[in-house]
Amino acid sequence: MAISKLNTLILDIASGLRVAAPQAMLAEVVPQQTMTPAGSPDAWLLGFLDWRGEQVPVVDPGVVCGHAAPDAAGIHRYGVLYALEHIVGLSYYAVPLASIPHPVRVGAEDVLAEEVAAPLPCPAVAAMARIEGQSVTIPDFPYLEHLIEQQLTRL
User: What is the phi/psi pair of residue 132, to 5°?
Assistant: First the structure.
């Protein structure tokens, strides 16, 4: 029996990017807490959260794509995501959220490809789509995770 619908979350990232991600990637939504600065020259690595005894990097994929970095005082919640790649020391990472994630069930008939000029807007974007009338970005999660890996080796 083929899967006809995929449980998906629409994540409004603090930098203004609207992202579609598989629901299974979200480990937890955590309320605002103090974030330790990253000490990184790359603005997309916002800092680290202490989550369940781990220091979890906080990244904003919108900033990777050229959006302005969000003001830390305006971030009220974070989405902690399971890492997909098997990178030593990176089991989770977090994204700053502008709102509570919105669940949708998505089937092939619900997703309409966005008219996007090639190449895609930035290397952190795997695809653009329209789901339930909303324009969304589908991140290249492995690319983001390897960016995090590179940055963590420099810190």
Answer: 50, 40
Nearest to 58 by CA among 153, 148, 150, 155: 148
Residues paired with residue 90 on neighbouring β-strands, in sequence order: 87
- State the residue range of the domain holding 120: 6-154
Task: State both tokens at 99.
Answer: 């709102």
| Separation between Cα atoms, residue 107 and residue 143, nearest integer Å | 25
Handedness of CA 3, 136, 114, 59 (dihedral sign): negative
pLDDT in tens, 13-45: 999 999 999 999 999 999 977 888 888 888 999
Please state the domain count of the chain: 1
Question: Is 66:125 a contact under the CB 8 Å cutoff?
Answer: no
CATH number (domain holding residue 122): 2.40.50.180
pLDDT tens sequence across 80-110: 999 999 999 999 999 999 999 999 998 777 7
Summarised one tens digit per residue, pLDDT across range 44-87 is: 999 999 999 999 999 999 999 999 999 888 889 999 999 999 99
Domain membership of residue 1 (yes or no) is no
